[in-house]
Amino acid sequence: MKLSGPLLSKINKALAKDLLAVSKRLAQKDSTIWGPGTQAASFLGWIDLPVKSRELMPELDSLAAWARTNNLSRVILCGIGGSTLAAEVIAAAYKREVIVVDSTHPAQVLKASATDLIKSVIVISSKSGTTIETVSHLKYFTAKLIELGLEPKDHLVIITDPKTPLDISSRQQGLRVVNADPNVGGRFSALSAFGLVPAALMGIDVSVLLDDAEILTQSLAKDESPAVSIACLLFTETEQFLNLCDLNSNLPGLSEWIEQLIAESTGKNNQGRLPVVISNPSEAIEDFIIGFSEGNFDVIIEATLGEQFILWEWITALLCYLLKVDPFNQPNVAEAKERTAQILLNMSNNRFVIPEPTLENSNYAIYSNQKISKLHDFLNTPALYFAVMAYLARGQDDEILKLNSVISKKIGKPVTFGWGPRFLHSTGQFHKGGQPNGCFIQVTAEISPQLEVPGEHFTFNNLLMAQALGDGLALIERNLPLIRIHLKDTRKGIASLLLDF
After folding, report:
1. With contact defined as beta carbons under 8 Å apart, do 86 and 309 qualify?
2. SS3 state at 84
3. Which of 142, 119, 125, 62 is nearest to 88 (CA)?
4. Phi, psi of 27 (to 5 degrees)
5. How many other CB atoms sit within 10 Å of the CB of residue 489?
6. Which of 415, 390, 374, 414 is nearest to 499 (CA)?
7. Residues of each domain in the chain carrying CATH 3.40.50.10490
8. Nearest CA-CA partner of 490 in 364, 404, 401
9. How many CB atoms sit inside 10 A of residue 299's CB?
10. How many other β-carbons are positioned within 10 Å of the β-carbon of residue 250?
11. What is the distance between the alpha carbons of residues 145 and 450, in angstroms, rounded to a whole number?
């Protein structure tokens, strides 16, 4: 790998020396690095993955051979957050096709199930085995396979930790199960079964990823460690924001994987570092820009994908030491989950009270805890950044991505973007646990018809809306500025938003 860029001259040598000593402790899996009361003792398995994951190779080879023999040429990957992000980057880097279902939006589920399931292997990924999105995907695709006269066990592959409810039930049904390392957290799991099983099914030689990661690991606790250098800069040269840019990179999507890793790991105790993913350096509001190929960046990290994965995991662990936060927990993610569950229950019992909009026109209704007379007023709310959270269909409603640049140009502040509910397992932790200086823009929409979740009292439509409302409640309870824009017609509503903001 190669590290370059003008900001490297600002590395604090004294801090780097101290952090190198911490890096050596990290190499020895010292769980006391982050202080008492952390979850580190149970989640340091990622350090060994470049070597330990080789134990999976016979199982991966067998799975890949089974898929080839049965002409299962399409890979559908169902999961959320760390269960899918790394695999999606791997697919893009190797120019392989994977259909990712990381949403509860009915359109994304229907689009995936409209493919030729006879030729598909459906990978269900959930570390806990209880993730509501992924369990719902499993129920839907199982019913769909049966409806088509296909045996679920001939098309489903389950990835989960040992002894989870999903592990136990899947084995009872005779499904193929690959157990992940229980000592590896989801966002640190790129080189575990969660990243490698889908890659192997796509026909990728995962040993190359492991080889590159293993070689780089040997330098991360030595002088001139790139992990130490980057962690130092993220601590001293920015108090909150950093820009990540994939421009001209041969690893598209890497920035979004890093975004999840850093935001969810550091965003706690009202502090942290918030990555802002940009497509061009000219879009950066703050000065700190990291790129992955030669260009106009403050720091350039040119490396293979295996090197990038292990490097950023080390960077994140070291940065959390400097910030004095536990890199392995996500204490505020549960807030939205609990509120979502209650809203779903109220919906099923007909006790859910539909809120009254603050404002309404022919294209959308607005709900907000701020006093506004028109949509644009929300942009005047005091904040250091704005977050757009779109509970729409990724790949179908991508026009909404333009909202970022529209808002950023008008307010001159960083604007992040997240697809709901995926971001709840990423920047969602930072929104509630990081610096409390953001403004939050939710975009929801009317969706019809209802798409049933087999065996459940709710539909995918209900679940998606409950997730938006649940996270909204968690933000409002923290007195954070929130606006929800509910589109009456998605296409027309997005076009109107781009004009009205």
Report:
1. yes
2. coil
3. 125
4. -60, -30
5. 14
6. 374
7. 48-209, 334-500
8. 364
9. 21
10. 14
11. 20
Question: Sheet holding 99-101: strands in order across?
Answer: 99-101, 74-78, 120-125, 156-160, 176-179
- Of 360, 362, 363, nearest to 494 (Cα)? 363
Three-class SS string for 257-321?
A: HHHHHHHHHHCECCECCEEEEECCHHHCCCCCEEECCCCCCCEEEECCHHHHHHHHHHHHHHHHH
Residue appearing with tokens 């929130």: 482
445 touches 391 (CB < 8 A): yes
Best CA proximity match to 255, nearest among 271, 265, 243: 243
Model confidence pLDDT, tens digit, residues 438-490: 999 999 999 999 999 999 999 999 999 999 999 999 999 999 999 999 999 99
Q: Residues 184, 45: contact at Cβ < 8 Å?
A: yes
For 186, the token pair is 């989801």
Q: What is the CATH topology of the domain spanning 334-500?
A: Rossmann fold (3.40.50)
What span, in angstroms and rounded, lies between the C-alpha atoms of 369 and 367?
7
Sheet harboring 2-4: ordered strands across?
2-4, 299-302, 289-291, 241-245, 274-278
When the candidates are 3.40.50.10490, 3.30.50.10, 2.40.10.170, 3.60.70.12, the CATH number that belongs to 48-209 is 3.40.50.10490
User: Would the pTM of this model clear 0.85, i.e. be above it?
Assistant: yes
**H and E: helices and strands count for the chain:** 17, 16
Three-state DSSP class for residue 474:
helix
- Distance in angstroms (rounded) separating the CA atoms of residues 210 and 392: 35
Could you report the per-residue pLDDT of 135-183, keeping only the tens digit for each? 999 999 999 999 999 999 999 999 999 999 999 999 999 999 999 999 9
